[in-house]
Amino acid sequence: MSDRKFALLGLLGPLTGILFIVISIVLVPWFSWENNALSDLGHSVYSDVAPIFNFGLLFTGFMIILFSITSFRKHTKYTSYFLAFTGLSLQLVATFDEVYGWLHTQVSIVFFVMIGFASIAYFIEKRSAIALVAFVLSSIGWITYGLKIYSAGIAVPETISAVAVALWVMLSAYKIYFDK
To answer: Most buried one in 30, 119, 137, 177, CB count within 10 A?
Structure first.
């Protein structure tokens, strides 16, 4: 497969993850932005949509890893490693769902730390303003959540972080695809 085709994975990966999360939210009446984590959707004992949610994370992680080690690696030498580890850690979040308790918490933390590292690396390597904005928005989301500045579930900073990073990943993939 050509670099151009692998770049499509950088576009489709984040979109797939977002799609599976939205489908999972729509299919359950109990999900609340004020009280839940996104991972509650993937709890293999208590959530009817766990297979959908967790498959979405696994597949998204797979596409991100493939994108990172192929076309993105030629575009960014160092950021590609961080993004590949981000894809792997996303797969670990799905594999070790909330049933695993402490282990799930740890792999979730690793995932969100990795998206921060990937954003900073991309900012440094490519002077990407959007990656810096993604890092700042993610940080603000987590800090304000931690300080209880607003009343919401952890799904809010999780979503802010994931969507912010998805934007620069998709923009990078778009540039690689169209060779810009």
So the answer is: 119
